[in-house]
């Protein structure tokens, strides 16, 4: 049993080595994959850029305004006012930057294809 426990690290070492060899894609490699995908779409006659997810609004993006607003304080009205939170602006900026990045790759390919023709 003791020998088996001593051999465990030696037996598991190749697994750890194999896991450490897996590398993540760089941004340039991801961009090249996107460019190839868009190029295939353009070759198929699909000239519309639609490779993006719609931005989804979440409940966490809204915060109820607790200040009393004199314009809306009629007793027969039940009007609530909401503000957008900072989380909304952060998430929207991330979504917008991702959209712009993908669209610029598509636009660059499109102009290159037009110049070739």
UniProtKB/TrEMBL annotation:
Keywords, alphabetical: Signal
Keyword Signal: yes
Annotated signal sequence range: 1-18
Domain of life, per lineage: Bacteria
Name of the featured protein: Lipoprotein
Organism, as annotated: Metamycoplasma hyosynoviae
């Amino acid at each position: 049993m003791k020998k088996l426990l001593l051999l465990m690290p030696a037996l598991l070492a190749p697994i750890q080595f194999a896991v450490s060899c897996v590398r993540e894609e760089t941004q340039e490699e991801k961009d090249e994959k996107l460019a190839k995908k868009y190029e295939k779409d353009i070759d198929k006659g699909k000239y519309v850029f639609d490779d993006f997810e719609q931005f989804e609004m979440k409940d966490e993006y809204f915060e109820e305004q607790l200040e009393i607003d004199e314009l809306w304080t009629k007793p027969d009205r039940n009007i609530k006012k909401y503000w957008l939170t900072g989380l909304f602006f952060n998430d929207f900026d991330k979504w917008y930057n991702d959209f712009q990045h993908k669209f610029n790759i598509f636009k660059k390919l499109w102009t290159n294809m037009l110049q070739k023709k």
